[in-house]
Amino acid sequence: MSILSAPFQQLCAIFGSITFFQWIAIFVVFVFYIYWSLTKNYGKFEKQGLFSIPPKLLFGNNQDLFLQTKPMITCYREFYNQFGNNKCGICYEGPEAKFYVKDPELIKQVMIKDFDHFVDLNFIPKELANMPVNEFGLANALGDEWRALKSSITPAFSLKNIKNIGTNINGPALDVIDSLKKCQNGVANMELYSGYFAMDCIGRIVFSIDFQTTKSGGNDFVKYGDGFFESWRFAFASLIPSVAKNLNFAMFNPKSTGFFLKLAHSVLSGRDGTNAYPPDVLGLMMKIRDGKLIPEDDDEKGSKQTMAAKCMDNDMICRTLMQFFMDGYDTVSAMTTMCFYYVAHHPEVQDRLIDEVDELSGRVGTNITGDDVKDLHYMTQVYNETSRLAPFSFTLRRCTKPWKVPGTEAVIPVDMGVVIPIVGLHYDPTYFPDPEKFNPDRFSTENKHKITPGTFIPFGLGPRQCIGMKIAQMEAKILMYQVFRNFRLEPSESTPFPPKWRSDHFNRIQGGCNLKLISRV
Ligand code: HEM
Question: Where is heme annotated to bind (predicted)?
Fold first, then answer.
């Protein structure tokens, strides 16, 4: 008796009877099918009057980005310039057509006025977003679930709470100073210390735990925090999302997501049963879960409270906490690093910054609080100018209700991705004259009103704006305050100006940020 099943035997018989010319025909049909699936979206929206840049087969308009032949910032700047005077148009990410919005008025319409048509962030392709391996907290939540979660979690990030956090993160800043003093009058890689600091801050803000990252000169928290993003994963999933879906493909490194999820679950289970809600982000989420927190903008029936409590089970708590590590570590670390970089390369800016720091230091000394930070006006200008020059290059939306493009016949359909070109706007000479120049005075009281609304958006815009914006700014300012109280920074040979961006990262520079430390005390 044959060990092969009957259907398999039939299949073998069919294949065996196919002639050479029939094989060629099958191959040709297969090649045409692949070609058709890669190009079926090309030209569809152009027929409705939208501009596009001619796409390349397989890569669309993103070849350099996918192959990492150019840094992300460079790719997105070139791309923005290729759109010329068009207010919007179509760009191709691999085979997928996306709506590209360049005009600030249209950007405000998409992100604020017509938000109902573009509710979802779109960092994970739709095909992959609903797989457990890619389900994270707030940033991935959709529609009403997202609304309820965001309005419940937002109080943890309110100005009042942030001010309290200020005192909390002074400790991690002083740890950095202790370490820097050991390499006094030497060279320090400020990228490393900004990373340690960002990790220690997030440990305290989220769990009230001191990770002691700086004190121990690095640990598993930074190892796994550094490992979250692997650009090849984004390239693969964007180019062939249907294959990625079948492979149950993870958009972020599963070792890192697994590490922080396990951490979140273990801290949560340690707290449960104690009936305590410590004043940190985890404590707040536990309150939401237990129906003990009423969102500020809730209606009389308490609909948002009910909805938030329903969404906020232990799994969602841990996924959201993990997401705060994902979103709040690398971004803060990179931006703070770049603040040091630009200041070190601009001694005249550093003089003014140090004057301001010394003035505050005369009043408060080491113990700066969240309230004191608001007096650091020039530092705010420095931070803003840094986030203009070294932002995350873009943000995304997904169309959730058909939207007619003003002034055209084109209609953006549900599920279409939308690209908002942050870095392109930030370097556009129409909005920021002499855009390559590091000039914090663009953000002075006299000048900031001249900035066209919708053109300076390092943290996004509208209801989906970054929830961690104020924390990120507070963290950077407290570290800068402590560093410039103690040191002057000077560039080293290995960290030249202008910045040489890395091609495998969003906004980090090649070789780290090695700066000379000149003691001031
Ligand atoms: C310099 C630091 C940071 C930068 C440049 C940054 C940038 C951004 C941007 C551009 C967005 C998309 C906003 C939009 O499309 O309108 C975003 C969203 C988000 N960020 Fe940040 N971020 C930073 C720090 C943080 C921190 C510290 C946290 C958390 C502790 C955080 C958590 C989030 C979350 C949860 C979202 C999604 C919000 C939502 O879906 O409603 N970010 N961020």
Answer: 466
Chain CA centroid to CA 202, Å: 15
Say if residues 328 and 226 touch (Cβ distance below 8 Å): no
- Model confidence at 509: pLDDT above 70: yes
Tell me the ipTM for this assembly. Answer: 0.99
| Strand bridging mode 411-412 / 96-101 | unpaired
Residue 189 Cβ inside 6 Å of ligand 1? The answer reads: no
CA distance 354 to 481: 9
Alpha helices, H only, 208-302: 220-227, 231-239, 241-246, 254-271, 281-289
Query: What pLDDT score does 1 carry?
Result: 47
Token pair recorded at residue 181: 């003093």
Q: For residue 472, report the distance from its CA to the centre of ligand 1, in Å.
A: 9
Q: Which spans in 63-158 are helix H?
A: 63-67, 72-82, 104-108, 126-129, 143-153
Q: Is the CB of residue 454 below 6 angstroms from any atom belonging to ligand 1?
A: no
With a cut of 60, say whether residue 217 has pLDDT above it.
yes
The annotation status of 201 as a binding-site residue, yes or no, is no
Q: Write down the residue that tokens 């044959």 correspond to.
A: 2
Domains contained in the chain, CATH given: 132-519 (1.10.630.10)
Q: Estimate to the nearest angstrom the gap between the alpha carbon of 46 and the chain centroid.
A: 30
What are the C-alpha distances in Å from 421 to residues 133, 185, 291? 28, 41, 39
